[in-house]
Amino acid sequence: MAYKRILLKLSGEALMGDRQHGIDPKRLAEYAEEIKTIVNQGIEVAIVIGGGNIFRGVAGASNGIDRVQGDYMGMLATAINGLALQSAIEAAGIKTRLLTAIKMEQVAEPFIKRRAVRHLEKGRVVIFGCGTGNPYFTTDTAAVLRAIEIGAEVILKGTRVDGIYNVDPEKHEDAIKFDTITYKDVMNKGLKIMDMTAFALSQENNLPIIVFDMNTQGNLEKVIAGKNIGTLVDK
């Protein structure tokens, strides 16, 4: 295996499947099986999930909701997604722990770095909810921050496209895919991989990012094995 401890970043929209909003149980079950496959190979897995399938703070702000309030609403949406993902992974037979940046002891543990690492060492999947716990920061930034804190070797950003392109491949048939790209080239080309705060934090800490298609069965296992799947962003 190319990696021992990874952080998987999933968007909230990924959980919608073919729906327009909410959570698709079929998609949840598919992700749980993919995660189970690599956990059974001894990989330590942490997950950060977004909340865009339920609520987006930025969208709320554009509709008159106070930005800070909206961001906290978005954080709670990630906790809902975390609970759903936890349920699906445990239904697949893998032990999990949900740790949140906002305290909600009845449903999750508060985030403590040493506790998170200990769970990983015991073979439990750790799901981080509520982003960083602060408004104005995205779950992309939370993913990079948590990955650094727990000593993850790589961030795997699961999307619905199979890597990074020079232009949007869903809009341009002549889009060119990058197998590897440097942080500097991403900045120079203005490619939208993560928000700039997250990307700068990843670059500063030499944390590689792999963008890949999470919806193709077996891709997660292939990425873990070091196969040329998706796009690697590194120095």
Task: List its traits.
single chain, 235 residues, alpha/beta, Carbamate kinase, nine-stranded mixed sheet, two-stranded antiparallel ribbon, 11 strands, globular
Q: What is the C-alpha radius of gyration, as a whole number of Å? A: 17 Å
Helix count equals 8
What's the CATH topology label?
Answer: Carbamate kinase
- CATH architecture assignment: 3-Layer(aba) Sandwich
Uncertain parts:
none
What is the rounded distance between the termini?
21 Å
Number of domains: 1
Task: Characterize the overall form.
Answer: globular
- Helix and strand succession? EHEHHEEHEHEEEEHHEHE
Strand content: 15-25%
The residue-averaged pLDDT reads: 92
Main beta sheet: 9 strands, mixed
Structural class: alpha/beta
What's the oligomerization state? single chain
The CATH homologous superfamily name equals Acetylglutamate kinase-like
Helix percent band: 25-40%
Number of strands: 11
How would you portray this structure in words?
Its EC number is 2.7.4.22. Catalyzes the reversible phosphorylation of UMP to UDP. A nine-stranded mixed sheet has the order 4-3-5-2-1-6-10-11-9, sandwiched between helices. The chain has a two-stranded antiparallel ribbon with strand order 7-8. The protein has one domain (5-234): Carbamate kinase, CATH 3.40.1160.10. It is 38% helix and 20% strand. It starts with a strand and ends with a strand. The chain has 235 residues and is of the alpha/beta class.
